[in-house]
Every structure is written in structure tokens, then in C-alpha cells.
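INFO batch 0412 | record 1 of 1 | parsing
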Amino acid sequence: MVERYGFSNGKVVPVADNPSILVYAAPTDTERQELLDDYGLDAHNLSSALDPDELGRVELDGARADIILKVPRNFTSEDQLLFTVTSMGLFISPKRLIVVTTDPIDLFHDRSIHRVGNVRDAMLKIWYGTISHFLGHLKVINMLSDSLEKRVNASMGNRYLLDMFTLEKSLVYFVNGISSNQMVLEKMQVCAPKLKFTASQRETLEDIGIENLQCSKQAEIYSNILTGLMDARGSVVNNNLNILIKRLTIISVVFMPMNVLAGMGGMSEFSTWTAAIPWPIAYGLALLALTAVGFGTWWLLKKFGIERNEMDHRGRRRPAVR
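INFO prediction complete | emitting C-alpha cells
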């Protein structure tokens, strides 16, 4: 799919003829051949722009520049909480900017640059949009992490823990992608005179570098926090399971003496022993006796400290903060 854009009153607008910006999203074989034959793109760099595992880089050829940068891939429900990155190619010449992506992306939605008068301004606007895209995904990952943390604290299975591992893997992809873009930005700042950037465009490029560095730090912080707490959250799941097993064991121990007494007497023997007593009274007294044995067993368990830790934890009052 090909989209064509031009400039009008400081904005990027769709045009039909003489486009200054061409956007190829998931180009077909015919469109790839068109890029190679009609616009003289390098075959290797074109393949790199469509390779999700390609590292970011800048190649200069006079006034032309081939830039490979990393962008977040559009998230869908089929990804199962896995956020990944892909590559984008920016092929800039003095009068034309060609963008090659693997997925359709809204490239010019960012408002950090209000007036766009040439292809270099458009390229800088795309850079700003990429950083905003990363930041938006980081906010979503942080919200999902907080939600999963609450579920993990009450869970006894591995489902939510595995989801957190997936988010941790996503943050690793983001940290690598943003760091790769940072190196590309640093090289572009050095090569700004060769690309004929104006003074204002150089200042914008420096601002983009600062924004990207802040985005990288934020991704690293989220990744370090999530990685550091994964072991603790795994221990929480194990502890929840241990508490459940402990409660079930206590219930089994409470009923064990009752089962033993009921088994020793049996139904026929008990009826013989209480032949002189009406059966409603006899069985009622037997039920009360077994209930008393159960409460007595629970009281002994509590006295010897089997439930003490859990009861102390629930009943302990927090000291007042002054």
C-alpha cells in the first residue's frame, strides 16, 4: 500500500500528484521493485527496513541518507500481552522522503512539530511520533503490570505470573529498540551539516535526542522494577498455595478423630449399645459428642501453634505513625 503526501500551509496533507513523501506500508514485490528501479533505493537497506530484527543505523551518500530505526509494532489481542518492535526505513533525499514500514502506522499524528515545510521537517516529525508511540506502549505495559500484580497476590496458579514474564520480555525489546534509536540520533547530530539541516532543525534534533534518552531511561526503570519483583511475586504465589494446603491439612486433622470414633463404634454396634435409649436422642448425643471432639482438636492445634502464625498475622495491629 502506497500513500502520497505533500506540504500545504505548514502541514502534511495527502496529494495525488508530485508527492514529496511516499509511505510504503508492507510493500508488495511489485512495489519493492518500483522502489529499486524508479527511486534508486539500495536493495540491502530496503530489506533491512522490512526486517524486524535489523539494528538501527545511518548510511550517508552525499545529500542522501538511508536511516533504519526501530518502532513499536501495532499491538493486537492475538499477541497475548507481548509488545514487540519492528524496523522502519527513512530514505531521504533533498526533495523527497520515502518511508518503508512493515505495518501501517500513523506517522504524522504527533503535534510536537507544528509547521512542516520540507522533507527534513517531516522526518523529524516522524521521529517525534516514534518516541510518542514508545511512551504510549510503556504506559500500557505499566498499567498491565499493576493489574497483574494485584491478581498475582491473590493467585495460586502460574497464569498471571507467565503474563508478567511476557511483559518483562516486551520491555527487553523496547529497551533494545530505543537504545538503538539513540545511537542513530547521535550519529545524525554529528552528520547534520552533511544533511543540510538548518539551525532550527538541529535544535529540534537535539530535543529529539533528549526525549529519546528520557524514554530509554523510563523503559529501563520499568524493566528493572519488573525484573526485580518477579522473584518476590513468584514467592507470593508459592506462599498462597502453601497457606491453602495448610488450611486443608488442618481441616483433615480436625475431622480425623471424629472419623476414628465413628469407625470404631460403627452403625450396628452403636445401635446395640444404645438399644435402651430412643434413637433420636442417642444419635443426637453422638453428634454433639463428635462435634465437641472436633472443636477440642481444633483448640489443641491452635494451642500448640499450628495456626498461630496465620492468626497473628491477621490479628496484629499496625503501630501508629506519628
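INFO post-check: The two ends are 65 Å apart (CA to CA).
INFO record closed
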